[in-house]
Amino acid sequence: MSMYLLIGLLLLFSCMIFKSFNNQSKQQDSVLKRRAVFSLNQQLTFARLKEILPSYTILAQVSYDALMTTKYSRTRNKYRNLLADFVVLDASHQIVAIIGLDDPNTLKRFQQTQYKDALLAMAGYRVIRYDEVPSYQQIRRDFLGELRKEWQEPDTQELDTSLKKYNFYHNHEKRKLKLWG
User: For the whole model, what pTM was predicted?
Assistant: First the structure.
């Protein structure tokens, strides 16, 4: 009888040791913490854009998936995790421009920055890239100069189509997207 009790205790003890080693090998989740949505440069840029362009809607940290689509998933995978810093929309919620803001690490990622800009340009978007926080004069020149003429004087043909249906793509020509890799 004592032999069975000893074997039972030995098995119980070995199971407890095995279980404790098994629990230590499991990865534990780290503590979740809040994080700032904007860096300091992005905060300043966002505030300046809102101040200078009050009639425009400014979106921040927009996924490329929300800006572009493609037929094949292998092409979509090439831009799936990319983000645009700011997207400027006009009163009819058409994209006027996409703003990229470079940070000190951009020199290390220069090719990726060019790649991101090329993708957006192939999709027909106007891309404005600033090396640092843009001045008030830069923003006024980039948006209130050229774009006032280009985007606020609609064609009569465009007005006729806007009465019939909502035009999501703002008469951009369709281009096939061919990516490297």
Answer: 0.63
